[in-house]
Amino acid sequence: MEEQSISFHSEDIDFSLSMPEKTINWIKEVIREEGGELSFINYVFCSDSYLLKINIEYLDHDTFTDIITFPYSESSLESDIFISIDRVKENANTFKVSFEHELHRVMIHGVLHLLGYGDKTPEEQTAMRAKENFWIEKHLN
Q1: Are 67 and 83 in contact (CB under 8 A)?
Q2: What are the residues facing 45 on neighbouring strands?
Q3: Under a CB-based contact definition with an 8 Å cutoff, are residues 81 and 44 in contact?
Q4: Who contacts 98 (Cβ-Cβ below 8 Å, separation ≥6)?
Q5: Which of 55, 77, 90, 108 has its CA 20 to 30 A from that of 65?
Q6: Residue 2: exposed, middle, or buried by beta-carbon count in 10 A (0-12, 13-18, 19+)?
């Protein structure tokens, strides 16, 4: 069995998680409880401009986004997940939640995509948001 790893990196910004081990354990719990098999997830925290370049280059989308998830396997969770800290801060203000709450929502959003949850239709969006809220409440409480 491959090593199960979750790692955090900063690309063009100075950022680090306040409690990385707790966050790693939480993400592994979500994956386990949702029936997934973790191989590796690399979270890359970056700026809006860095993520915009990736969005244009790889997805042909010329828009800001908070997260881009690149899955590498269909049988296990192998992924690079890029998260714009600029966008997370702005969204936290917009939604009137703490930065930590919004960051964890975005982080688990990427994992839920890897686990097969979609967000294209209104029904999928409702299910995705319910799962995000469930796991955030379990983690932050």
Answers
A1: yes
A2: 10, 83
A3: yes
A4: 92
A5: 77
A6: exposed
Residue written as token pair 């703490």: 98
DSSP labels for 42-86? Answer: EEEEE-HHHHHHHHHHHH---S--SEEEEE--SSSEEEEEEEEHH
What is the tens place of the pLDDT at every residue in 60-110?
999 999 999 999 998 899 999 999 999 999 999 999 999 999 999 999 999
Q: Would you state the structure tokens that stand for residue 20, as one six-digit string?
A: 């990385």
**DSSP conformational letter for 17:** -
- Unique residue bearing structure tokens 């964890």: 104
Secondary element (H or E) of residue 105: helix 99-114
DSSP state of 116: T
Helix (H, G, I), strand (E, B) or coil at 107: helix
Which CATH code fits 5-140? 3.40.390.30
